[in-house]
């Protein structure tokens, strides 16, 4: 038994020494900022060739330069994940550049918060389109590169981003909660259908991670959705004073760790699910919440 444990331990050490994702190819959407940016940089540092996408081309260019600065391999494909031609565009570009796809991280998204009784159809539909339909269509487009038969198959995984709103619901987020709940069913179906091909599919449900979506709404951050300006953030949310957290633990009484998470911490959880460290983990929803909701 001790010899076997030594072999396993040695394998993990050697893998990490050359990068947990060495030689693998990962598509990461919504990578221009926030969690997606952190994931793209971390994956690249762990040896992955990353294909990053964002609707904001300028932000995407900045991330490309950051990755290239430490010698990482990166390809940027700007665009709207909800556009009909987006899946083919990014899959074709990825395969043309790197010849394969190992991982898809469906991270792109935003919030369009309203109380249920005031939520119009368009506010509900756009959130479903970006958070459910877009990931489904990208995964379907990439199917030929995941449904691979044979014994010599590389590490491959799908990671879909959900939220505690999808697990428990949330006031003012009927559209977002419904979409993030749907992601769980999508992921588990992929796990069952593609498991025989060695593909793992997992969901990651984030709690409070400090991004523009969880920052104070009073900061005035907006995005434009189909010609309309939509305010982002949470009314009255405390602002972090450091890289990752608001230092006053009393600001987060419902989180056992008494703080919110950083985008780097969120990315680390994604790395675990993509890496061979999670080689027997599939169909799972990993809650990254600082203990909130337990």
TrEMBL record:
Gene3D superfamilies cross-referenced by the UniProt entry? NAD(P)-binding Rossmann-like Domain (3.40.50.720)
GO BP, one example? fatty acid biosynthetic process
For molecular function, the Gene Ontology terms on record are:
oxidoreductase activity, acting on the CH-OH group of donors, NAD or NADP as acceptor; quinone binding
Q: Which InterPro entries match?
A: NAD(P)-bd_dom_sf (IPR036291), Sc_DH/Rdtase_CS (IPR020904), SDR_fam (IPR002347)
One Pfam family from the UniProt entry? adh_short_C2
Keywords tagged on the record: NADP, Oxidoreductase
Membership in a protein family: Belongs to the short-chain dehydrogenases/reductases (SDR) family.
Q: Name it.
A: Uncharacterized protein
Task: Record the organism.
Answer: Agaricus bisporus var. burnettii
Source taxonomy: Eukaryota, Fungi, Dikarya, Basidiomycota, Agaricomycotina
